[in-house]
Amino acid sequence: MTKAEIIVNISEKTGVEKIVVASIVEGFMSEVKSNVIDNKSIFLRGFGTFKPKKRAKKIGRNIKKNVAVIIPEHFIPSFKPAKSFVNKVKNR
How many whole angstroms separate alpha carbon 70 and alpha carbon 59? Predict the structure, then answer.
């Protein structure tokens, strides 16, 4: 499902104009991005948690040159679903 399809579905279910729904969805995504970039977590009860996850320093390999490359520690965005959400998906 794409963002456009989500906007259409929400608009049809709520009766709110697509432009308003699109602005709300964009605003939500912007808030999630900016908070995770600022090393903050977002907890949505019953849905899950968006948070930055730390990746440790490790040694990788450049296969073409056969050389070891040091990959420094860094953060990546992560989503952990809530247990109730996971259970609903399992038991569908």
Answer: 5
50: tokens are: 């968006």
Q: Taking the CB of residue 50, how many other CB atoms lie within 10 A of it?
A: 19
CA dihedral 30, 34, 39, 44 (to 10 degrees): -30
User: For residues 91, 48, 25 and 1, what is the CA-based torsion angle, rounded to 10 degrees?
Assistant: -30
**pTM score:** 0.79
Using one digit for the tens of pLDDT, what is the confidence trace for 9-20? 999 999 999 999
Residue from 73, 14, 49, 75 nearest 6 by CA: 14
Residue ranges and CATH numbers for the domains of the chain are 3-90 (4.10.520.10)
